Amino acid sequence: MQLSVGCEIGYEVFDGGATLIFNIEAMGGGRQHIIGEKLTITPFQDSDEKTAEETGNRYLRLTAAPGLLQIRYEAQIELDALHSQPGTINEVPVAKLPLETLPFLNPSRYCPSDQLARFANRQFGGIAPGFGRVTEICNWINAEVDYLFGTSDTTTTAADTFSMRAGVCRDFAHLGITFCRALGIPARFVSCYAWQLVPQDFHAVFEAYLGDRWYLFDATRMAALDGMVRIGCGRDAADTAFATIYGAVNPLPIRVWSDALDGDIRQEWTTDAVSVSRN
Amino acid sequence: MQLSVGCEIGYEVFDGGATLIFNIEAMGGGRQHIIGEKLTITPFQDSDEKTAEETGNRYLRLTAAPGLLQIRYEAQIELDALHSQPGTINEVPVAKLPLETLPFLNPSRYCPSDQLARFANRQFGGIAPGFGRVTEICNWINAEVDYLFGTSDTTTTAADTFSMRAGVCRDFAHLGITFCRALGIPARFVSCYAWQLVPQDFHAVFEAYLGDRWYLFDATRMAALDGMVRIGCGRDAADTAFATIYGAVNPLPIRVWSDALDGDIRQEWTTDAVSVSRN
Amino acid sequence: MQLSVGCEIGYEVFDGGATLIFNIEAMGGGRQHIIGEKLTITPFQDSDEKTAEETGNRYLRLTAAPGLLQIRYEAQIELDALHSQPGTINEVPVAKLPLETLPFLNPSRYCPSDQLARFANRQFGGIAPGFGRVTEICNWINAEVDYLFGTSDTTTTAADTFSMRAGVCRDFAHLGITFCRALGIPARFVSCYAWQLVPQDFHAVFEAYLGDRWYLFDATRMAALDGMVRIGCGRDAADTAFATIYGAVNPLPIRVWSDALDGDIRQEWTTDAVSVSRN
Amino acid sequence: MQLSVGCEIGYEVFDGGATLIFNIEAMGGGRQHIIGEKLTITPFQDSDEKTAEETGNRYLRLTAAPGLLQIRYEAQIELDALHSQPGTINEVPVAKLPLETLPFLNPSRYCPSDQLARFANRQFGGIAPGFGRVTEICNWINAEVDYLFGTSDTTTTAADTFSMRAGVCRDFAHLGITFCRALGIPARFVSCYAWQLVPQDFHAVFEAYLGDRWYLFDATRMAALDGMVRIGCGRDAADTAFATIYGAVNPLPIRVWSDALDGDIRQEWTTDAVSVSRN
Predict the structure, then answer these.
(1) How far is CA B109 from each of CA B159, C119, D232, rounded to the nearest angstrom?
(2) Rounded to whole angstroms, how far apart are CA atoms A14 and A5?
(3) Among A107, B151, C140, C201, which residue's beta carbon has the most beta carbons within 10 A?
(4) Closest listed residue to residue D190, CA positions, set D176, D200, D181
């Protein structure tokens, strides 16, 4: 399907200026094709842009003078999501995992898989390994955690969410990642534009490494997996902030959008196995 | 039933001496009668002893000179535990709770009932209020938490135990208290001598305020409720340390015992409602 | 000095009603005399009121029907604060502390004195014991922690505040209490009306037990110690909430005031030793 | 200088077998040359070995049958450490940092730089940027944190260490990394063989990115920086475990050694700037 996605972000930069690193551009490669895109920085200024080799994350770095700074990104994306039969997708024993997936078994800032290991094994250890087990993890999170704004903040870990039983999309993703890692399944955090997400905002989901690729999972079930345009991926939210800011600024309201450009309109969350990742 | 209980505690007190506050003596009053008791402090030294009015906890305070200090306490206790029918015991609405039980609704050092409130209400909120609900809490803890030495320490809270799913008697008690408070049931921590506990040691259980009195609960189910000799009670383990020490000492191995003196030998953990408390 | 203090608190009580326990009335006794006071509950309804023996906290409990509930409290208070010379006030060795002060040496929900014990002893252990040492603790907090709204919430402990180095009055009080307890000085939390506090709100300070009484300390230094009208005291903020609510309500904006009624106007924070407590 | 380093690690592997991933081999490249090395696995079995491209970490993965498993690694290493003048080494503004260093600015499992940011900036923000500032961070840690076994465990974060003021080498490294990241200096965790370390064990230090390379720092000051043979580097200890084990095993005592093979014997910790890293 084709999607038109984008965002507008603005800051009032205070005296002394600021260096900002953005990760808002859609990833290319894999089954996510960038048909066209446009980035506008107002006022115009020098910036450098790089793509991280391992992840495909695209970083835009600029040093802004005091005053108003506005960034507008828009892109037209063709998603050729791979749909697979869940029942055919297995977990990979640690003995056979590709080396580059191993770091995604380690605990990270927001995903302390060491702390929740006993629970994960008690609750999910008896389920047949494979795509279905990760789906069960999502089912559990969806049933046991309330989606509520204002209950978590930027210091909230998956262990906190597990205790508090409330959170938003990033917390849901962190908890899913944490359980997967505790079970020996590499899992990573993905930020994205999400078609049909209401209200529109940057969304957070996760990928688990199963079979021979990374599959998308969204424990919030607030948007269709095959309508997600991947922006950044990493260990957890610490790696995929849409903006990292060094200097004093006042953030202005942001606007995010994601619209379908063709008739391929799904209306429900799907339990299909969906993969878009290039690596 | 009659029990012979006691303990031997020793310290090597270093230069500078130490002030020690012990809470090892059996409480009197209520349905726990002290038939006889004997306290030996070696070497002999002045001490003061007081009973806290609200709780009945007995504190022995002494200032020890450098050298070896040994405390031996032994007592003969008659327990006339009140056994009630669980089905007849109700929870008390907050609007009718005695004022002096209200502090036992507040979160404390090891029982952050605020953090686990949402879970407690999701898991236990739908169960009919009363003794049976607290029993369900104990069932849940017993089923979901592993009794394992070495998994917790003196900084471990009930939120930690909830995440880690492992702990010892004090952790089980803290978790039970936390869930009760989150549901509006006053609950407090009780240290005790526990007949049939293997291996013998100071034990930790909890009391919930139901109907018109405090009832004992032990989520570990490692000893009979009507064979427990209460020593200290308070908000949580922070209030009921068997020894609080100011100064540098080296603790020696402790010995604790609890033996039945008559034929009233129960061999199993009971689901009866058991109350011994004087207040 | 004479003060006119009070508050207006309101709730929209939802279907099902709610039980509310308020602790907003000024304590009597000690050097805080209630000249007159008036409590208005709208709509009028039955309530019970009790004073906790150990603390003097006054609790107002009522069960509200659905609809609007408004509470207005106003009082005229004569404060005859005891001013002592700081240099004459000593710490009390644990061996000599009154039994009833011992619970205030224990760690509590927001004051994990066990976790900060090493720091407290490194930083303040070398200072001469006495009132001056607690003043040094306040100096340190005032210098090292930023007073900032929005950096802490109701789950924030003194260990969090110590790491984050920001908080509000309750966090400042919790940190002061934590350091005192770690040094063997009983300390407790006090909620109060605070004359000259800007903006007017319920304030939080702490008391340390020194010499033969409880002395007030305010690490925020935002109001005069001898213009504070004590409302509640306890282990920490968990014990002194101005309102504890069981049931679903929507809180309305609150209003708090504290005005001097005579000419005894101090304008600066004082380093005098000030005591008002009755116990 | 030339060093002979190595280790012996053993496990009793239980029924079901285990997959083990070791990271015990010295890195090659940069100024650390492997003259010779020998790896013995007893009983002999298939294993695969790979070097992570970004870090140079060498992973040995094997699937062990039940029974005794022993690994012995020994290597002869030539260290040609680059010694630079501390005064000439500057920090790199975020605007100019190489892209691949940016992940080392993010908070990680054991290095929650977001939580200690305010303190880091209060304490070290006023110090002139550069190698000297990171040295000041090490000085502070060395002065303010006690090196004590038994005070931390595998769940201890730098925020815990900051509060508790005690820890071991990994905790010292985590705290140093955390402060650096909070100040905008990329920092990473390094596990190593450390000549002169007493008692001999795997050691943990950290590297900060300054000028155009990674420099070693050791806040414990327990071994010479130019006698450290790098084994693994990553975000924190979560990335550099010497053994990651999937399956049930009983670890046997390990032995680690590090001996100088030539006369270039330094006897003191140095404040020189030392770099060995290949990237």
Answers:
(1) 11, 19, 39
(2) 30
(3) A107
(4) D176
- Is residue C215 within 8 Å of residue C89, measured between CB atoms? yes
Residue B91 amino acid letter: E
Report the complex ipTM.
0.93
Closest CB to A119: pick one of B115, B116, B165.
B165
Domains of chain C, CATH where assigned:
2-79 (2.60.40.2250), 82-239+266-275 (3.10.620.30)
Q: Do A109 and A157 contact (CB within 8 A), yes or no? A: yes
The nearest alpha carbon in chain B to C244 belongs to B106
Flag whether residue A166 sits within 8 Å of chain B, measured between CB atoms.
Answer: yes
Contacts of B177 (CB under 8 A, 6+ apart): B111, B113, B158, B187, B188, B189, B206, B236
- Residue B221 has which token pair? 């189910």
Task: Please list, in sequence order, all residues whose beta carbon lies within 8 angstroms of the beta carbon of residue B179, skipping any fewer than 6 positions away.
Answer: B113, B116, B120, B123, B124, B137, B141
Per-residue pLDDT of chain D in tens (279 residues, 90 and over written 9): 899 999 999 999 999 999 999 999 999 988 999 999 999 999 988 889 999 988 999 999 999 999 999 999 999 999 999 999 999 999 999 999 999 999 999 999 999 999 999 999 999 999 999 999 999 999 999 999 999 999 999 999 999 999 999 999 999 999 999 999 999 999 999 999 999 999 999 999 999 999 999 999 999 999 999 999 999 999 999 999 999 999 999 999 999 999 998 765 555 566 689 999 877
Q: How many contacts (CB atoms, under 8 Å) link B and C?
A: 68
pTM comes to 0.94
Q: Which residues of B touch A119 (CB under 8 A)?
A: 163-165
Show residues of chain A in contact with D114, CB under 8 Å: 154-155
Could you tell me if C21 lies within 8 Å of chain B, comparing CB atoms?
A: yes
> Neighbouring chains of B at 3+ CB pairs within 8 Å?
A, C
